[in-house]
Structure formats: structure tokens, C-alpha cells
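Q: Given only this backbone (192 positions), what sequence would you predict?
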């Protein structure tokens, strides 16, 4: 049975390279038969958080939030594609995530972090991991860091280095295992 795994991109910069990783991961998820819609904060155009989705009276939330709520309620897992801004989580990613809470519960998340340099965004992954757990979608143990992303994936997300395929296959195997396990548990009920 296919999984639904929204791929949430964390950058809105005009020359962002993270879109390469998002395209690559979407293609690999879809090749496994999964549904992997892109959640792009640049496309959503959400303002800085004023009120969460659940704080709007029913049917009055802005259209992008209604669309995301529907997507998230049907999701089995979430995959973050995060840059590293000043050793932290990009503001666009944090803002996009903060609009929701209950929609994330009892679903695993995974973190693909990247940078143009040698560290692959791992310093942002650590605070992001804590944030995801607090939101109710704890991250799987493994990360997929991509150092020098601009050399590893071309503009359309095609790999130019062989290691990324092997690392991604293991990463997605782990995410799939957690997503299937938690989906089975959600079907029997949740603690609240």
C-alpha cells in the first residue's frame, strides 16, 4: 500500500539549491510507489505565523492552510528538506511547520539536510529534530546530509555522484519502515 509523504522544503530564497534535493527525493519516493507532494513555502506565500490553523473558525482559514490540513491529515510521514541558516532551522521551514500541530501526530518525520559547504547542514538538523518531536512527528534516527549539494545533484535533481543513491535508499528504507509501523498502530487507535 503506498505511503503519502509530503516533502517539505525549507527555503524561499530565489537561488535556493534545496529544490534539487526535494526533486530528487520526490522522484525516489515515487519510484517506490509512494505519493510525495512538494510543500513549498515560496509557493504557499504564508505570512509570519499569527494564528495556527486550528485557531481559525471552521472553513475560514486561508486556502493554502486548508489545502495543507487536508494533505497532512492523509499523510503517513513527513520528509523535511532543510538548509542551514546560521547553524539553525531556516525561518521559512519553521514558519510553515508552526501552523499545524495535531495533523502531525503519530507520524514519523525524516530530515534531509544540505549545504553548499562540507557539513551538509547537520547543525540545523539537530534543533530541527527537537522541533519535530515537539510537534508530534519525531524524526527517524538517520539523517540524509548532502554536503556540496550543487555538485551532488543537478538542477532537476539528477544525481551526479553515485554515493547519494545508496545513502538515499537506506534512508528511505528506514522512513518507510517507521511510516508503515506507525500507520498500522494509528489504525488500532492512539493514546488520545
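A: Predicted residues:
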Amino acid at each position: 500500500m503506498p505511503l503519502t509523504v509530503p516533502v517539505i522544503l525549507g527555503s524561499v530564497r530565489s537561488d535556493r539549491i534545496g529544490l534539487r534535493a526535494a526533486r530528487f527525493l520526490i522522484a525516489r519516493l515515487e519510484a517506490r510507489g509512494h505519493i510525495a507532494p512538494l510543500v513549498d513555502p515560496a509557493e504557499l506565500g504564508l505570512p509570519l505565523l499569527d494564528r495556527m490553523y486550528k485557531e481559525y473558525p471552521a472553513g475560514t482559514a486561508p486556502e493554502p492552510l486548508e489545502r495543507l490540513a487536508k494533505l497532512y491529515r492523509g499523510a503517513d510521514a513527513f520528509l523535511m528538506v532543510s538548509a542551514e541558516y546560521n547553524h539553525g532551522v531556516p525561518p521559512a521551514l519553521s514558519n510553515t511547520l508552526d501552523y499545524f500541530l495535531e495533523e502531525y501526530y503519530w507520524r514519523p518525520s525524516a530530515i534531509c539536510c544540505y549545504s553548499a559547504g562540507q557539513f551538509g547542514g547537520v547543525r540545523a538538523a539537530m534543533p530541527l529534530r527537537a522541533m519535530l518531536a515537539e510537534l508530534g512527528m519525531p524524526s527517524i534516527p538517520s539523517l540524509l546530509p548532502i554536503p556540496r549539494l550543487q555538485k551532488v545533484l543537478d538542477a532537476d535533481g539528477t544525481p551526479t555522484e553515485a554515493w547519494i543513491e545508496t545513502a538515499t535508499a537506506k534512508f528511505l528504507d528506514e522512513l518507510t519502515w517507521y511510516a508503515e509501523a506507525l500507520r498500522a498502530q494509528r489504525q488500532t487507535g492512539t493514546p488520545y
